[in-house]
Amino acid sequence: MANVELSNINKTFGAVETIPDLTLSVPDGSFTVLVGPSGCGKSTLLRMVAGLEEPSRGKISIGGRDVTHEEPSKRGISMVFQSYALFPHMTVEQNIDFGLRLSKTPPEERQKRVDAAAEILHLKPLLKRKPAALSGGQRQRVAIGRSIVRNPDVFLFDEPLSNLDAALRNQMRVELADLHERLKSTMIYVTHDQVEAMTLADQIVVMNAGRIEQVGAPMELYNRPQTLFVAGFIGSPRMNLITGEAAAKEGAKTIGVRPEHIELGERGAWKGRLRFAEHLGNETIAYIDSELGELIIRINGDHKMKPGEVLQFQFLQEHIHRFDESGRRIQ
Amino acid sequence: MTSAASIHNRKSRSIFADLMSSKGQAVLLLLPPALLLFTLFVALPLFDAAYYSLFKWNGYGTPTDFVGLDNFRQVLNHGIFWESVRNTLIVLAVSLFIQLPLALGLALMIYEKTPANTLFRLVFFLPYILAEIASGLIWSFVFDGNSGVASAIFKSLGMDPVFILADRHWAFLAITLVVVWKYFGFHMMIFVAALQSVPKELLEAARLEGAKRWEVVRFVQVPLIGAAIGVSAFFAVVGSLQLFDVVIPLTNGGPSNSTHTIVTYLYSFGLTRNRIGFGSAVGVLLFLAAVGVSIFYQYQTNRRSK
Amino acid sequence: MTYARLVPQLARLAILLIVVTFVLGPLTVAVFGGFKTNGELLASPFGLPSHWNTEFYSALLNDPGFWKYLGNSLIISLSTVVLTLIVAAAAAYVFAQIRFFGSRMMMSYLLAGLVFPFATAILPLFIKVRDFGLLDSYWAVILPQTAFGLSLSILLFKTFFEQLPKELFEAAYVEGCGYIRFFWRFTLPLSTPILATVGVFAFVQSWNNFLLPLVVINSRDLFTWPLGMMQFRGEFLVEWNRVLAFITLTILPAVVFFVAAQKYIVAGLTGGAVKG
Ligand SMILES: Nc1ncnc2c1ncn2[C@@H]1O[C@H](COP(=O)(O)OP(=O)(O)OP(=O)(O)O)[C@@H](O)[C@H]1O
Ligand SMILES: [Mg+2]
């Protein structure tokens, strides 16, 4: 059992309160993804779980054990850094079994675990190389390998794929999903990337300015954002947020409609002028100046449109999200 | 054949054109001052040293009394020379095996960027920029058996004051102490700069892997600043070889010539006695030692980087 | 932090304070010593003076000889700085900016000076300076000193120049700006940090230099302060308080200068050391 419980965590750097009061529960075996704008405290949170920062107040427990003041290495966690943090003067093999050597693990055992990790991550041919002689993706695998061999209960990842190019990112994403499937350990993962969040997570935590906006399964966040912030943050292109009369008619301060939930057609209640359209092949993203403000509409790919063209559209009634003046969802 | 000639032609024309171009003018105007100064005052004297070392010469007129390697024979048969070599080696050993570890230990304590650490670094570095001669003089007061700090310490311990700098056993140790005082801050600064350039995540990663503080030092920080340690060791060796200024105010080579370094030896037995040939021979030996050290250092760094 | 518990923190602080005492102890003894009478100095060499006698300091400050020493040192040091900056920057610019046959070789030649102990050639240098008729003149110190500082200075300059954006030169070149004009108009103005570093470095080296002036300067009128100090020490063999006052007055400006310029000194050191 390695669920992670954070209760009433506060983190203050000097005079700056980065995390005011945060409570979060990460179930055993879950793949929990932390997302949020830059500087909102994701890394800080992760580093507190790792033990690299100590919370100013509050309690952290892993697997039911209070680890708030425990050494990082005694928490049963491992961490993969954005910069990989491989030791440049050691070979891949030495990097991977560094912790095992420190803990005086018998050589046969060490060999076994390194071999197993190398097998999973396809590192066999690279074991004798130094990190400088590896590609970005290979380095990332070594970093993951280093965390695997210690059999941690909880894996922590801080934007592990952000230094890779798009193709490699996709590939590594799939490998990470595989890894979770295979190891079934708890994973906490920080990312900026929507796609990573949506595809990898079984629980997404949306953070904003040190607070949790919403916790839930990816589709739940997508379909039922509880706050305006989450509504605007999850989904790409982002949700259209409309205030004023159109919102009032729905009994809300603000309404949100996702680009794919706007329908074009003569029957449409609203009008707008096409500013420009991005033809992506399988779909078209239209940017419209309308009486409701600037809107984004997503339609299928073979739609031919010209800038300046006047379009009529309407919202799919059952997909309108309503928010009150404090930005909370109206149920 | 014609094509070869024309290529050659074009080439020589382009060299000529080059010289007249803005590029050529720049080279011809900006480089010679440095070359001239360096050649006149650094390179030529080195060759002169080799030449003079073959003569018995008091420095007046031109050297005529060719004596072959006799100056070298004399130097190498001189007990005081060997004592100066031994002393230089002691400084070298103290620099390498006491001063450098001390500097490294302190650097590890204060490399992180905090206001207090900045202040400590400033203080530790201070002796390095003070003149050697002033430092030596201050310490010669500290060690003075009549009125110095050391004498007061001896008295307060109820012992007879020892004239440290006049004592064959203590004088040179006192000099090495001053050397450490004067230069450890320099080495510490090199280590601090190197330690600051080690990415923080590496230390955190090691910590996550269960490394204790000293294991982080031993397995991560020290190996990663290996190049800086090499540079520092190199400076320590070259610095020891040319130690002079500090010794003069402290002991001036005494008592009974027991605290000479190679350079004070050269100065006392070559220059002040107008034995240019003899002194040059000492210089040549010193030069050879420096070259040997440099070659060794190059060899080591090449091997490391492989 | 979990890592740094109280006991190691205290131990660390204790060690640092011991080293601070070791470093500053002799310096404070010197400063206070200058205020003590010789009798008091004998009785209690450390500790605050019981009475702040300023006479020894003021005697020095009123001694034209003392100011003469400082003045000589200042003239020599400033000239060395100016000469070093011009000559080294010009050469480094050529190495950094212009590819030509033999450039690498000349570069190694000039950098070889990094390795040679100054003292190896001090005797022939003395002969050279004498043969040039420079003995007992400012130039006798300035020129060799500059020459020996060239290696490090050129290295520091070259490293810096190479980091300046290449596009700048290309743009200027297209506009018809030649190499020399570019050096004056762009490279030098953009290089103030490294000029400061090299300048400060050359100054400190020159200000503290002892062996060279000792060998090439004879007349007391031209003594730099280290020579003057040794002279003074010889004259007041038993009056340590006067000697300590002399030392204090000469290292005080150095300390002030150091605190003000330490950024550049450290930059030069670590730059030269790490890259050299
Ligand atoms: N050691 C520190 N000292 C002072 N402030 C810090 C420290 N570490 C983080 N902060 C501050 O805490 C806030 C949260 O930082 P954190 O690194 O957790 O953000 P993040 O969500 O990971 O951002 P990003 O997505 O850019 O990585 C930031 O405002 C940052 O400036
Ligand atoms: Mg972050």
UniProtKB/TrEMBL annotation, chain A:
SMART domains: AAA. It is found in: Cell inner membrane. It holds the Pfam family TOBE_2. It is a peripheral membrane protein. CDD domains: ABC_MalK_N. The keyword Cell inner membrane applies. Belongs to the ABC transporter superfamily. This is ABC-type sugar transport system ATPase subunit. It comes from Rhizobium herbae.
TrEMBL record, chain B:
This is Raffinose/stachyose/melibiose transport system permease protein. Residues 85-297 form the ABC transmembrane type-1 domain. InterPro entries: MetI-like, MetI-like_sf, UgpAE/MalFG_permease. It comes from the Bacteria. Keywords: Cell membrane, Membrane, Transmembrane, Transmembrane helix, Transport. It is found in: Cell membrane. The chain crosses the membrane at residues 89-110, 122-142, 170-195, 216-238, 276-297. It holds the Pfam family BPD_transp_1. It is a multi-pass membrane protein. It comes from Rhizobium herbae. The keyword Transmembrane applies. Gene3D superfamilies: MetI-like. Its main location: membrane. Belongs to the binding-protein-dependent transport system permease family. SUPFAM superfamilies: MetI-like (SSF161098).
UniProtKB/TrEMBL annotation, chain C:
This is Raffinose/stachyose/melibiose transport system permease protein. The chain crosses the membrane at residues 12-35, 74-96, 108-127, 139-161, 182-204, 240-261. It is found in: Cell membrane. It is a multi-pass membrane protein. Keywords: Cell membrane, Membrane, Transmembrane, Transmembrane helix, Transport. Belongs to the binding-protein-dependent transport system permease family. It comes from the Bacteria. It comes from Rhizobium herbae. The lineage of its organism: Bacteria, Pseudomonadati, Pseudomonadota, Alphaproteobacteria, Hyphomicrobiales.
